[in-house]
Amino acid sequence: MKKTNAARILDGLKIKYELREYEVDESDLGAKNVAEKVGMPIDQVFKTLVARGDKTGILMACIPGSGELNLKALAAASGNKKVEMVHLKEVQPLTGYIRGGVSPVGTKKPYPVYIDESCMNFGQISVSAGMRGLQMIIDPQDLVKAVSAVIVPGLSTVPV
């Protein structure tokens, strides 16, 4: 299994994690599919989204796989009036990662990271290790420490 930049960074910080490899289904990069393949409940599999604030610029949000990003909560937490998702074509140039493989750890430039507070309900969560088909299983407190993340209540809304 190839070590990603995200894994090397965690190694350097002496943070424990587990890598889980899975078969990538290009037709379904959704969190539900990833959760099934890594054997974890969807609410423990966090997706990393890239957004742009009107005042602060690029930022990242980690929310449970079943949720949708609450842009108002992200704007309030990040000191922006308005936040919008970046266009898909911008994700790789900004982060160095492709869709379905965006990790909050090891981006091209360090961006502020905001994580939904529900991550603290679990001893371990899963986030992308920086490539499709590879997830990092990590203690959420260690992830927060690794990326200096801000815990945000209500960052994720569950679709009705």
From TrEMBL:
Residues 32-145 form the YbaK/aminoacyl-tRNA synthetase-associated domain. Belongs to the prolyl-tRNA editing family. YbaK/EbsC subfamily. The keyword Protein biosynthesis applies. GO terms for biological process: translation. Its EC number is 4.2.-.-. InterPro entries: Prolyl-tRNA_editing_YbaK/EbsC, YbaK/aa-tRNA-synt-asso_dom_sf, YbaK/aa-tRNA-synth-assoc-dom. Pfam families: tRNA_edit. It comes from the Bacteria. The keyword Lyase applies. One of its GO terms (molecular function) is lyase activity. NCBIfam families: YbaK_EbsC. Keywords: Lyase, Protein biosynthesis. It comes from Clostridium thermosuccinogenes. This is Cys-tRNA(Pro)/Cys-tRNA(Cys) deacylase.
